[in-house]
Amino acid sequence: MRLKVITSNPGKVEEFRREFADWGVEMEHAHIPYDEIQTSELEEVVKAGMEELRSSGLRDFIIDDSGMFVDALKGFPGVYSSYVQKTVGNAGVLRLMEDVSERGAEFRCCIGCDIDGETVIVTGVCRGTILREARGDGGFGYDPIFSPDGERSFAEMPLDEKNAVSHRGNAFRLLKDRLRDLGLSDTD
Ligand code: ITT
């Protein structure tokens, strides 16, 4: 089985490859631009992206729209996570959180998969906290400032440990369940 992972983010491709390595699925990184519509729901972005890509004739692909939702900021940056990361970055988020004691946040990851004529859309969530300073060199994006256990940041965890608890890892597990239900897995 071969799937194109359509993203501008090589970090996501690495996570997909690692997670699907034991499934005999080959993940091919592809840069194919599609519109990310402006809405408050990740699922809506993914649905619209899948329709656009399918109507261009593309088949057997995966897209992923994710965001970090900070409780004290009423869910910001959320669907604006990409823009905020590119503009003010982790330092900007830490500045916004400087005098805030309520540090709760969650990552959400919505994955859309077109496979064998089927469309599957799943969402995974990971609760955690925003750290007081950036820590670690692994991962990408907000990984240095987000911790799922209040101790280590995602950027301080080996990839397998991040996948075991992360929003994307949780979405992977839901996706695998759905692919199994559809009889599309190489394993039981
Ligand atoms: P594509 O849309 O091209 O896939 P992107 O990096 O813009 O790539 P998103 O819109 O899904 O991806 O992500 C929004 C932001 O959240 C972006 O800055 C990411 O780096 C960040 N992000 C997504 N998943 C993350 C993760 O697992 N750890 C840390 N940051 C993450």
Describe the structure.
The protein has helices at about 10-20, 40-55, 80-85, 90-95, 160-165, 165-180; strands spanning about 1-5, 25-30, 60-70, 105-115, 120-130, 145. With about 190 residues, it is α/β, with parallel strands linked by helices. The protein has a single domain (about 1-180), classed as Alpha-Beta Complex (Maf protein). The longest helix has 15 residues, at about 165-180. Inosine 5'-triphosphate binds near residues 64, 67 and 166.
Short description:
The chain is an alpha/beta fold and 188 residues long.
Helix count from the secondary structure assignment:
6
The CATH first-level class comes to Alpha Beta
Named CATH topology: Maf protein
Helix share bin:
25-40%
Describe the biggest sheet? 6 strands, mixed
Shape type: globular
**How many structural domains in the coordinates?**
1
Average pLDDT rating: 94
User: Bound small molecules, which ones?
Assistant: inosine 5'-triphosphate
List how many beta strands DSSP finds.
Answer: 6
Biggest sheet strand line-up: 2-1-3-4-5-6
From the 3D coordinates, which CATH architecture would you assign? Alpha-Beta Complex
Helix/strand structural class: alpha/beta
- Alpha carbon gap, first and last residue: 15 Å
Indicate the low-confidence ranges by residue numbers: none
Task: State Rg.
Answer: 16 Å
Furnish the topology, listing elements before pairings.
Layout: E1 2-6, H1 10-20, E2 26-30, H2 42-55, E3 61-70, H3 81-87, H4 89-96, E4 104-115, E5 118-130, E6 146-147, H5 159-165, H6 167-181
Parallel strand pairs: 1-2, 1-3
Antiparallel strand pairs: 3-4, 4-5, 5-6
The protein binds inosine 5'-triphosphate.
Inosine 5'-triphosphate is lined by residues 7-9, 12, 64-67, 81-82, 85, 139-143, 154, 166, 168.
